[in-house]
Amino acid sequence: SGTAYEDTVDHLSESEREVTGLVFALAGYLVHEVYEKCPFMLLDSLEAIDADRIAHLVSYMAEYAPFLVVALLPEDARALDDSYTRVTEI
Questions:
Q1: What mean pLDDT comes out for the span 44-52?
Q2: What backbone torsions phi and psi does residue 22 show, to the nearest 5 degrees?
Q3: What residue ranges do the domains of the chain occupy?
Q4: pLDDT surpassing 90 at residue 14
């Protein structure tokens, strides 16, 4: 108790840094209620997270961001239920 530690993210792997950045960005979006002024969110490069966790993340964020766009690999997209609109070709 009372001890503080300081470190950098340099020792983390690239995927660990990506997940850490995602957590901080989403926390800021929710804590500061950004969704009230900007109801749009784009999530991309989620490959560092397994498909089941991506599905939970999408489900959770859909409660806050009415306009949620998620770019996923086909194998990760299969973990989402069929209630989501999918764009497979442009």
A1: 89
A2: -65, -45
A3: 14-77
A4: no
